[in-house]
Amino acid sequence: DTVLTQSPALAVSPGERVSISCRASEGVNSYMHWYQQKPGQQPKLLIYKASNLASGVPARFSGSGSGTDFTLTIDPVEADDTATYFCQQSWNDPYTFGAGTKLELK
Amino acid sequence: QVKLLQSGAALVKPGASVKMSCKASGYTFTDYWVSWVKQSHGKSLEWIGEIYPNSGATNFNEKFKGKATLTVDKSTSTAYMELSRLTSEDSAIYYCTLMYTTDYFDYWGQGVMVTVSS
After folding, report:
1. Is the pLDDT of residue B42 over 80?
2. CB contact, 8 Å: B1 with chain A?
3. Residue of A42, A45, A84 to mutate, interface with B, max B Cβ within 10 Å
4. Contacts of A86 in chain B (CB under 8 A)
5. Is A47 helix (H, G, I), strand (E, B) or coil?
């Protein structure tokens, strides 16, 4: 299976820029997607196919990367962005998710 | 608008089975793959498998073959997942999710919490 590695946690101040990384154990082309999950809620799609903003998602969120290295960037970070962020690939079978990066605000 | 409404929480005994539902609305149910995803407490997400309602075709994560059974009722636009021979490792939140635009999960149900306990 394709293992997706994310850093476990980050802490930033409101107004700052934050980058969350996701590294795949094998190439996934551009088929990397990002989700935001707040406590008690289902995941919500933020970015699809590496760099495309999902409908209704603020332009503060952006994605980049291809192959094995991907980044989700939030600029500027707002208090409401406190959540866990998951990457997910759909290039290789089975679909897999990263362990999630918990974003906390200082 | 697209909605996925899942059944309520379940408390089940070890060794038993549980069947949960996911009622879809706002789109043509038979035209899109419905997936199921497991989230163990405080942990990440695991893709269990998917079903294509039009034909009933399924694909599974090898890890969940023999554990999960996926079915649909086209007359009510409802997808089902049954988990068998439950153990404490099956205690988790289970989501149904939809690849409406293909390749990624753009719609999610609210989740079903399953607790396996005697």
Report:
1. no
2. no
3. A42
4. 44-45
5. strand
Span A13-69, pLDDT tens digits: 999 999 999 999 999 999 999 999 999 999 999 999 999 999 999 999 999 999 999
> How many CB atoms lie under 10 A from the CB of residue A8?
9
By Cβ distance, the residue of B44, B95, B111 closest to A98 is B44
Interchain contact, A48 vs B43, CB within 8 Å: no
E strand intervals along chain B: 3-6, 10-12, 18-25, 34-39, 45-52, 57-60, 68-73, 78-83, 92-98, 107-108, 112-116
**B84 contacts B67 by C-beta, under 8 angstroms:** yes
With CA atoms as reference, report the closest residue to A20 among A1, A30, A31, A35: A35
| Residue B109 in contact with partner chain A when CB distance is under 8 A | yes
- What does the angle CA A43 – CA B15 – CA B71 come to, to the nearest 5 degrees? 50
Beta-carbon separation of B106 and A88 below 8 A: no
The closest alpha carbon to B55, from B80, B26, B30, belongs to B30
